[in-house]
Amino acid sequence: MAFSLSFFVITSVFTCPYQINIWKPDPGIYKHAAHNMGFPVGQCIVIDDGLVGVEAGYKAGMKAFFYNQFNETCDSPSVVSFSLNEGTVGASWNLKKKLKTIGDLS
């Protein structure tokens, strides 16, 4: 299945957690963002550098990618963990390979 990533100007969809009274790890923060962008949560991905954000995205029903810069343990087998510790070129190739796992999004 082919897919494309669309990038949005974050200021047009960003809402401060204080405005909606929702904070990570509550999945509602990502559900709110998806709704504001006009996408179902199942067609969104989350890339976060904290386990709390990854947990929120996963619980929201999104494919979650964990930028694991401190070699932390992520207990969820459904979360794709990656780091740049192996060097930029190797990490780029490794992340590209791991991004292919989102092909199951509908």
Which structural traits does this protein have?
single chain; 106 residues; alpha/beta; Rossmann fold; three-stranded parallel beta sheet; 5 helices; 3 strands; globular
Per the CATH scheme, the topology name is Rossmann fold
The oligomeric status of these chains comes to single chain
Helices and strands, in order, run as HHHEHEEH
Number of domains: 1
What general outline do the C-alpha atoms trace? globular
N-to-C CA distance: 9 Å
CATH class: Alpha Beta
What is the level-2 CATH architecture name? 3-Layer(aba) Sandwich
In CATH terms, the superfamily is: HAD superfamily/HAD-like
Q: Helix count, per DSSP?
A: 5
Structural class per helix/strand content?
alpha/beta
Give the strand content.
5-15%
Outline the biggest β-sheet: 3 strands, parallel
Contiguous uncertain segments of 5+ residues: 1-11
Helix content: 25-40%
Average pLDDT taken over every residue: 76
Largest sheet strand order: 1-2-3
How is the secondary structure organized here?
Elements: H1 10-13, H2 17-20, H3 28-37, E1 45-48, H4 51-60, E2 63-67, E3 80-82, H5 88-99
Parallel strand pairs: 1-2, 2-3
Written overview of the protein:
The protein has 106 residues and is α/β, with parallel strands linked by helices. The protein has a single domain (15-104), classed as HAD superfamily/HAD-like (Rossmann fold, 3-Layer(aba) Sandwich). The protein has 5 helices and 3 strands. A 3-stranded parallel β-sheet has the order 1-2-3, sandwiched between helices. α4 links the parallel β1 and β2 (63-67). The radius of gyration is 14 Å and the shape is globular. Residues 1-11 have low confidence and may be disordered.
